[in-house]
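User: Can you help me understand a structure? I only have the sequence.
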Amino acid sequence: MASAFALTVLRLGVSLALFAYVLPQLVLRPAWPAILRLFGDSPAATLIVGQLLVHAAVFVAVNGMYAVLYAGYVPQLDRYRVIPKPWPWQRDEATRAAFWASVRSAITAIAFNNLALGLPLAWLTYRGPRTLAEAGGGGYGDVSLATFPSVATMAWQLVACVVVEDTLFYWSHRLLHTPWLYRHVHKTHHAWWHTISLAAEHAHPVEWALGNALPFIAGPQLVGAHTAFLYVWMVLRIASTLDGHSGYCFPWSLVRLWPPSGEEHDAHHSVNVGNFGSSLPVWDAVCGTGIAHSRVVAAKLREPRVGDTAVAPGGDGGDSDEAHAAKQAEPADERAPGSERRVHSGDGRSSSGGGARRRVGAAS
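Assistant: Let's start by predicting it. Here is the structure, written out as tokens:
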């Protein structure tokens, strides 16, 4: 136990060094004059368009890395699979068709959210402090090389933003699990039962704005972050959420700050409750909403394999309002994952029993 804790602390130390020193000071700072010229020395373009490009680059690169693993080119890493069951594309024809339909839906939703919502929201968050930022006087949106954040500034702002993001994410996530919002908004994300990295950002526009974008940007706004910090923060958060949905749990991951992540978030998607946090276990511990992943794994492995990732008739992947509300009312440590399977009928109702969960085989 002590050795595991020591290794976790060591990994966190290396992660902090990577995101407070290596990436900003050794990569971004030397390139910053060229980055400013690329955006015509415009603070607005550097922040708004720049963060969109950073997001796209990290999203494509990390998903590409996981695609190599999903294709089976590195079987030695299969030992780090969260659930040792066949991937959706390795199953029957109906499951494969449902999976690829979900992939197309995810790509469309992600593109819409980031372009149609992301760019306007980035502009709105920049408008307030723009005068101070454009004068090179510090504050959110500043792009001056003279005020480029130091290692110490990067470090404390990263810690502050992790705490702010996790707090806002936890409570917005719990709100999204109330019956009406779950059924009409959050169920889009929970259609993925067997998660993959692409599923991380597949969300209803309302959830994307209030549950993802707001927790992400609130921290940098509060600490008055330089745009260079925003780039680093973007890399960390995108890589972290893709890691958390990837279906793998690598003990050496430098973006998995502290549970919950791969295993804990997989448990959340499996039973639709508990483990609401983003990067830290604090609020789940305080509010008693944590779920032990080992119990969920045991339940999953007991479930029948036939059709357990197929799309239910009616195309709905989540629990009904009544079933979800019933789960929410149970204390987290009293839920029996093995009894939480639901078979959905065409009219949207769900019933408990020995049948397999019928969901899309593969996002908070």
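Now, to help you interpret it: DSSP finds twelve helices and two strands in the chain. Residues 2-38 form the longest helix (37 residues). Let me know which part you'd like to focus on.
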